[in-house]
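Continuing the series of single-chain predictions for the mutant panel. This is the parent chain; the variants come on the following pages.
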Amino acid sequence: MGFVYAVLGGGRQGTAAAYDMAKNGDAERVLVGDADLEAAVRSATRVNTLLGRSVAEAHQVDARDGAALRRFLESVDSFLSAVPYWLNPSVLEAAIDAKACMCDLGGNTNLVREQMKRSDAAEAAGIAVVPDCGQVPGMGTALMSYAMTFLDRTEELLMWDGGNDQHPKPPFNYILTFNIAGLTNEYYGVAHFLRNGKRVEVPTFLEEDYETVDFGGKIGVMEAFVAGGGTSTMPWTYEGKVRTLWNKTLRWPGHFAQWKAYMDAGLLEEEPVDVDGMRVSPRALLHRVLDPKLRARPEDRDFVIVRVKGIGEKDGRRAEVLLDLIDYYDEATGFTAMERTTGWDGSITAILNAQGVTPRGVHPVELAVPGKRFAEELRKRGFSLKESFTVHRD
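Parent structure:
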């Protein structure tokens, strides 16, 4: 008998996760739940078609209905919550009641830290819960943990990441492959970093943190800047243990200036303003106007970069490890690089939860997911993960 998995949310990332659970998770069944039954049916049908067997089942379930959600989860060993991040605390309560292991795509560090307060209850229920398991945070977090395994002592952990159009087109040179609310949530506010071993709050889109990075080859130069949420709970976990920890978002040149102009104009503010007698949220208006202009079209092809650098000591000498994961739209399955790096990361964690690899209770990725095992899982799925490790002799 295999495991019974579930995905809550039958959209892009949820469908990718359901596919990976069914293919790589020793799955007996994969339940796809969505408030929109048609969305769940489309998702389950796509999974079954790709795999050539009936393993995914469509269910109508509203994540806001606690009782219905508990019933949906009662037969589930492990599931991924791919619903909007603000629903995850209540989804966690249903998971505890149903005794179903849980991971989620996260998206808000404050809510993740609130979820961690329920660790004792989750442990008592015998379940593992790992929040913030998307592309970054999530895959990037686990790769940072993997980088640390190369070193005896880690002093610096640096990460650059981003999902972009393989063939950028003006005026935006960017395509949107996930919910635009997730993008603006990352862009507006502060990031949590470590500087001199202390946790600090760094405003997003600061010009002094802007840099360019040359990846060579067909990618070339990209710009990197501070956005929020990428480090998740790591600054709290490693405060006083690692001197420097930060994350920067990668985009094609020009993106930073465009979005900084939106921010400076107040268009990412959420407080409604008066417009001809109507109260309108600037951010909601920006979403409505920009989403159709940024939304990826069927012919668009994306790619994702996650670069991690760890600096420290090995055998008493200065050492440095560089990890590069670059993934592209998959023509065979039709999954975008963002779907693969986000949905499959959530699936990997859900599988590790089901297999008993992760500790019971609520724990962040950096403490729950073993870095070496995670790298093995990535390679098993065909991800290209390049490693460079240098021990300096002087």
